[in-house]
Structures are given as C-alpha cells and as structure tokens.
Amino acid sequence: MSLIKQDDVIASVADALQFISYYHPVDFIEAMHQAWQREASPAAKDAIGQILVNSRMCAEGHRPICQDTGIVTVFVKVGMNVQWEGDMSLTDMINEGVRRAYLQPDNVLRASILADPAGARRNTKDNTPAVIHYEIVPGDKVEFDVAAKGGGSENKSKMAMLNPSDSIVDWVLKTVPQMGAGWCPPGMLGIGIGGTAEKAALMAKEALMEHIDIQELQARGAQNRVEELRLELFEKVNNLGLGAQGLGGLTTVLDVKIKDYPTHAASLPVCMIPNCAATRHTHFVLDGSGAALQTPPDLSHWPQISLEGGAQATRVNLDTITPEQVRQLKPGETVLLSGKMLTGRDAAHKRMVDMLNKGETLPVDLRGRFIYYVGPVDPVRDEVVGPAGPTTSTRMDKFTRQILQQTGLLGMIGKSERGPVAIEAIKEFGAVYLMAVGGAAYLVSKAITGAKVLAFPELGMEAIYEFEVKDMPVTVAVDSNGESVHTTGPAKWQKIIAMNHTQH
To answer: How far is CA 76 from CA 79, 131, 205, in A?
Structure first.
C-alpha cells in the first residue's frame, strides 16, 4: 500500500504541463528530422525545417512550441491499494495542477478553455477544467498520461459508424484529404476501431500517447492484423502527397497508431484523431515517494538546421503595399513581411460582422491592411508578445466575403487551406491569402517587434492587436486570381509519388 499526497499530484501535473509546453518528445524530433532529410518538395522541406528550428528554440527558451497550448487531457490508472492524503477529490487535484501550470509567471500559457460552450463562451482564465479518464487497476501506484490537445488537430477528428463489410482503409484514405491541413501535418494519426462510438474515440486518443515506432515495425514486419493495417495506412496516407502543412510532399504522417476493442456483430465504429506537429504528451508514476518531476531531454537530440527560405524571398512592406503589388504575388512564393498588421480571429470577426450589419463604424480601419489570424500567448520578461503562430483559417471563411467587400481589407495571414467560399471572395476582390507555418509559433513571434491591443480588449487573446513585424516568413497560399497551393501542391506530389512507384 502506498500513500499518495495531494501536493505531489498537483506539483507533478503542473510540472508535466509546463514541460510539454516547450519540449517535444525525442521520438517525434527524430522522426521529424528523418522526414526533413527525405523531403523532396522545397515548400514542405522549408515548413518541416521551421518546425524543427522552432522546437529547438522552445527547448532552449522554455516557451510554448505552439501558441495553442490545448485542452488538457489526462488518462489516470489508479492502483486499488492506494491511499490518499489530502482533502480534495483527484479531479480537483488534477485541475489545481492545470491551474498552476497555466498561470506560472515564468512561462504563462494561453488559456483557451471556454465555459458555457453553446452560450456565452466565457474564458475560464486558467485553462481548467481538464478532460480526465480513470481506470482502476491492481497495484499500489497511480499512473498518469498527460496531454495538451491543440484545437487545430483535435477539431479535425473524424468518426464513422461503418458497416461490418466496409473497408477501414478506404474510409481513412477518403477522410484524410477531407481533414484539410489545419491539423498541421506531418504528425500522427490515432485510430480507434470497435467497441461503441465513444470507446472508439477514446481509443483513438489513447493511441496517440504511444511512441513513434513505425520504422521498427517496417523492419521486423507485421505480426497481427492491427500491425498490417498500420503499415498499409502509413504507406497509403503518405502516398496521397498532402505533405507538410498541406503544401504537397512526401511525408504527411510520421506514424499511424491503432487500438481496437471487440464490437457488436452489426457494428464497426471507427474514430480517427490526428496529432499535429506540436504533439505534446508525457507520462509519470506516483508511488508515494514524492512528486514525479520530468527529466529534460538533452539538446543534442535536436538537429542543427539553417532555414534557406530567406534568400530568394520577396520582401513586402505592409505599410505601403498596393493592390497592384498584391496582384504580382505568385502562388507558392516565400514572402518576408515587414511593417504593421492587425490581428483578429473568430470572436473578433463575429464582432466586426455584427457591427457592420448594424451599420456601426468599426473600431479599426481595415482598408488596404492585412489581418493575421492569431491568438497570441501573453509575453513574459522582455518579450513584445508570446508565441504567436497562426490559427486555422477556414474558420474565418464565412466572414471573408463581407469583410473584403465592406472594409477594403487587402490580405489575410493564417494557417492551412481556404475553402471555396473564401477563395471565390479573394479572387473577386483581388485580395491575397498568405500562410504561416503552424507549429512554429515561437519562431514567428521573434519577427514581431511591437504589439498593442487596438480593439475588443475584453476578448483576451482574441482581441484585435496591431503587430509590428520585421521579416516575418510566409508563403503565398491563395493568390489574387484564386489559385490555391493547397490544391495544386498535393495534386502535383501525388502524381510524382505515383510515377516513382510505377518506375520501381
């Protein structure tokens, strides 16, 4: 029997969450570096390079890998012989650990959790509550898997109740392209098969806690049907040519993880959850001997990479850019932005559109300006702003036409692809959409030299800021003619991969 102290749970959870905010798991770094070495698509290689450079900077600077430090998900296995010292429930202990981690002054993390999700959507200000899953097991230890699941990848989760005769492989290959690039590939796919609907989803999430080991599996060969499926899906999903950030390339997934469970004779529930390039999770055990603190990985695990993108990049001054200059920007081109931009994401867009519909004047003039879809982390010490990577742009698609038409906005910056509605509006109004790399938030923030809140301060990280930037790297993702690299890039690389296969 062991006695687990309340303070040890709180301290261990808080330490784990701080740790995973700035350290990638080593297996992920190694898999990502291998992908970078293999990658033949210049745009995808540059994106993976940015993710690796950002990862190293975060490990050195102890700042978040991504501005979206996620909703905390915890799997807990409680030994039946454990006793507790303390007056809180285990759920309250875990949530107190979350609170302390997110409010730690040296590395404040972004509070992203909203209460009353179908109504007022009020920020809880400390990222609580966590989503917690418990299992009671033999023994006298308590085991924790702690993850922080970012919205970009989590929001792309897919679920289906297939017929028993349906092909799971076909469903996955049809579904992955539909997820777009908002989950920030390359990453992992977690797949749960069987049980009931919620069991499949739970297994998919659990599968993502496992180490990347597909290379070892390829070397020794499959020993059961699940391993066969993993190998088949790994190859076929990468052959889709989606590539890093959806720009087209050789690596879309670093591993495919599958968990299964017996199911009803008439059922085949399947759930798939992608894990992005900011994959963050860790494991610890409490046995009564005190708090379990994480051991930092050695920095030698991170490769030394220099980014090539800057040499042939077009420089753009946001303070003087004209519609004519926007029309000259070519799809896939690397651009370095300098000058002043505005920020605004879902809540700010909703607020602006409501004001326009009422005939009110907006608090900021958008004419000829660029808006960056971002909700930054608060700054610490001498920072101008905390990690400030882009959010998934498709969520702004429904506002795009009205904003372009009624405000004269010239350009948008965000993450991953735009949908047909937004592309049509970009083409009609001669605007441009630029893409920043998701999963490189700290690297991006280093280009920001000034930041102040201009409007809607009550929205917290969703307020409208004005950023001043110097040489912020972006890619032209949709040009003023409506050509999208997220359509042309994967199509081109799918053909290249297929040709290489037929030659071999």
So the answer is: 10, 11, 14
Note whether 246 and 185 are within 8 A (CB).
Answer: yes
Which H or E run includes 137? strand 131-137
Residues in the chain: 504
Residue pointed to by tokens 């326009």: 356
* Surface-to-core class of residue 419, CB atoms within 10 Å of its CB (0-12 exposed, 13-18 middle, 19+ buried): middle
Distance, in Å, from the CA atom of 230 to the CA atom of 346, rounded to the nearest integer, reads: 36
Q: How far is Cα 65 from Cα 443, in angstroms, rounded to an integer?
A: 9
Q: Which two tokens stand for residue 65?
A: 């890998």
Longest dimension (CA), the chain: 74
144 phi/psi in degrees, rounded to 5: -125, 130
Q: How many CA atoms lie within 13 A of 147 on its CB side?
A: 23
Percent of the chain with pLDDT over 70: 99
- Looking at every residue in the chain, the average pLDDT score rounds to 96
- The pair of three-digit structure tokens given for residue 276, joined into one six-digit string: 């992005």
Q: What is the CATH number of domain 314-489?
A: 3.20.130.10
Report d(CA 84, CA 46) in Å as an integer.
50
Q: What is the pLDDT of residue 311?
A: 61
DSSP letters for 47-91: HHHHHHHHHHHHHHHT--SSS---EEEEEEEEETTEEEESSS-HH
Residue intervals in the chain for CATH 3.20.130.10: 314-489
Inter-residue contact 305 to 335 (CB < 8 Å): no
Q: Name 431's bridge partners.
A: none
In which element (H, E) is residue 274 found?
strand 268-275
CB 94 within 8 A of CB 9: yes
| Residue 489, H or E segment | helix 485-503
Per-residue pLDDT tens over the stretch 149-199: 988 899 999 999 999 999 999 999 999 999 999 999 999 999 999 999 999
Residues 355, 356, 360, 363: what is their CA dihedral angle, to the nearest 10 degrees? 70
**DSSP secondary structure code for residue 390 in this structure:** P
DSSP character for 395? Answer: G
Q: What is the pTM of this model?
A: 0.94
Q: Per residue, what are the HEC states of 187-243?
A: EEEEEEEECCHHHHHHHHHHHCCCCCCHHHHHHHCCCCHHHHHHHHHHHHHHCCCCC
CA dihedral angle for residue 149, residue 150, residue 151, residue 155, rounded to 10 degrees: -50
Q: What are the Cα distances from residue 323, in Å, to 205, 347, 367, 408?
A: 45, 27, 11, 10
- CA 387 to each of CA 36, 61, 300, 303: distance values in angstroms, whole numbers, following the listed order: 23, 11, 23, 21
**Residue for token pair 């102890």:** 62
Structure confidence by residue, pLDDT tens digits, 245-276 = 999 999 999 999 999 999 999 999 999 999 98
Which pLDDT belongs to residue 154? 92
pLDDT at 309 over 80: no
